[in-house]
Amino acid sequence: YGVHAGVGSIQFISDEDGNDMSGLSWNGGLVVSFPLNDYTASFEIEALLNYRLLNRVYEINGESAKNRIQQYTIEIPLLLKFAPMNSRFQFLFGPQMAVSVYDHLKIYNKGETVKSEDLLESSAREPIDWALVAGMGIMANPHVIFDFRFVVGISDMYSNLYEGGEY
Hints:
With 167 residues, the protein is mainly β. Helix content is 0%, strand content 71%. It has strands spanning 2-12, 21-35, 41-60, 63-82, 89-109, 112-118, 128-141, 144-153. Strands 1, 2, 3, 4, 5, 6, 7 and 8 form an 8-stranded antiparallel β-sheet that branches. The radius of gyration is 19 Å and the shape is elongated.
């Protein structure tokens, strides 16, 4: 068992109109690891509080505009970890469930807030997201591991954002 803390970059890729958003993500939480054998394999469960801040800057009729999304989620990755014998490297993969706690959209035009909406309250946001996690880790010592993860969402978290082609 132990604690987990992380920072990363994030990108939301839109399949509707190419309006991708990018930003930063911070998380922290608890980790429990169950060894599957003496040295090379383990099963790990994590409970993480994740904060995301995403932005998209664009122009409308020559004027600067910006969309900003702030999110808090509770993420639960279920990971299998494998390590070659006598190596400091680990490989990990597995599914991840994220329960949305807070999701807020702000739209700015010329620096003024045009729209501010709670996406959970308006039902524009799905309450649970699913993702796949893959990565690798390096064991600095028996108590500290640095891992690098790639998380790909497999559910459409904003499936209700557009109704009849309108936001």
